[in-house]
Amino acid sequence: MEKLYTAGKEEEMGETAVNGLIAGLPAGLVMAISLALTGISTGTQPLVTLGYFDPRRAGGWLSGLLGHLAVAAIYGLIFALLMRVGERIRPSFSRVSWLWGMVYGLVLYGLAVGIVFRAAPSPVAQIAGWQLAAAHLLYGLVLGIWQQKNR
User: Fold this and answer.
1) Is 22 helix (H, G, I), strand (E, B) or coil?
2) What is the DSSP string of 84-138?
3) CA distances from 71 to 10, 24, 63 (A)
4) Confidence band (pLDDT; 50, 70, 90) for 94?
5) Helix (H, G, I), strand (E, B) or coil at 55
6) Residue 19: which residues within 8 A CB-CB, separation 6 or more?
7) C-alpha distances in Å from residue 12, one per residue of 4, 15, 35, 82, 84
8) What is the dihedral of CA 111, 117, 120, 124, to 10 degrees?
9) How is residue 12 annotated by DSSP?
10) Closest C-alpha to 11, from 84, 89, 103
11) Rounded to whole angstroms, how far apart are CA atoms 146 and 126?
12) How many CB atoms lie within 10 A of CB 76?
């Protein structure tokens, strides 16, 4: 496997991918909790908000939460790989991974609103735009901090 040498630590590509998957889980959990709690401000019960993420579109909060965490983990993996490429280009790139994480979160928000919600109707589109944007920023922040901490 190809190896990356940073700060005296050797990391293989597989380790980077696994670290990204793991980083996506707490970031996705924080995002889900923030959406559930901010949903209260618009009169939506937290479990209903989590049900919007149910891949079967049955409104189940548990399958919605698990589906959301699965997607968050995959996006965490992609972020970790992008950070690795950035570190190859400029080694100091990872010093502000929290900031790159927030940018990444906003890019994901833009893709969701600009492409995903337009391509197929989704119950997630019922969540207010400001809530989704704030939750994506929070996801990216936690993802970047977790990623930096575990490098």
Assistant:
1) helix
2) HHHHHH-GGGGGGHHHHHHHHHHHHHHHIIIIIHHHS--GGGGS-HHHHHHHHHH
3) 28, 8, 12
4) confident
5) coil
6) 11, 80, 147, 150, 151
7) 6, 5, 35, 14, 11
8) 120
9) E
10) 84
11) 29
12) 28
| Residue position matching structure tokens 């940018």 | 103
Bigger pLDDT: 10 vs 89: 89
Model confidence at 3, pLDDT cuts 50, 70, 90, reads low
Integer-rounded Cα Rg, in Å, for the chain is 16
Confirm if 63 and 56 have CB atoms less than 8 A apart.
yes
Question: In Å, what is the CA distance from 48 to each residue of 11, 56, 120, 126?
Answer: 41, 14, 20, 11
Domain ranges across the chain: 3-149
pLDDT at 96 over 80: yes
Tell me which H or E stretch contains 56. Answer: none
At 105, the amino acid letter reads G
Tokens of 98: 């929290």
